[in-house]
Design goal:
This protein has a 4-stranded antiparallel beta sheet with strand order 2-3-1-4, with helices on both faces. The chain is built from 5 helices and 4 strands, in the order E-H-E-E-H-H-E-H-H. By secondary structure, the protein is of the alpha+beta class. Helix content is about 35%, strand content about 20%.
């Protein structure tokens, strides 16, 4: 199985506002870095090459990022051991601090590309039940064996 991830963010201004310019100007570079990273499988993107124009939520200031990775370690390495971390450290410049859980990981079959609807369901699950093998973050790092056991119990 592979690892899917979703994270959402609430922009402090419209995507075309000058406040968001540095974020937008780095999108192609960071997305290319992800695609070139060890363990990268797939990412959600629209015609413009990123997911900022894909409307998943009724609130236009919420944007979504989704991708699939070979495993949690390759996602961790991209997130925290590449130039992506530079952008991550600057997120307060462009995004509000979200009170509810804004990210979730889950396992998918190797040939499956999750839909935004699946991602919304996993986000809601982690908000409702906390981290479980069904929806988790780097803090928990559940395994596929733990997922199978969890599914049998529930």
């Amino acid at each position: 199985m592979h690892l899917a991830q979703v994270n959402i963010a609430e922009m402090i201004a419209p995507i075309n506002d000058p406040i968001m310019a540095d974020f937008v100007n780095n999108l192609d570079r960071i997305n290319a870095l992800a695609e070139e990273s060890n363990g990268f499988v797939w990412r959600l993107k629209g015609d413009e090459g990123n997911a900022t124009a894909i409307r998943v939520f009724e609130y236009d200031f919420l944007i979504i990022n989704m991708s699939v990775w070979e495993n949690i370690d390759t996602l961790f390495d991209f997130t925290y051991k590449t130039a992506h971390v530079e952008i991550l450290k600057r997120k307060k410049e462009w995004f509000h601090n979200m009170k509810k859980m804004h990210m979730a990981f889950w396992y998918v079959e190797k040939d499956h590309h999750p839909t935004p609807e699946e991602a919304k369901e996993r986000l809601q699950y982690i908000r409702d039940y906390g981290e479980t093998p069904y929806a988790f973050t780097f803090k928990s790092r559940f395994t596929t064996d733990e997922l199978k056991a969890y599914q049998k119990e529930n």
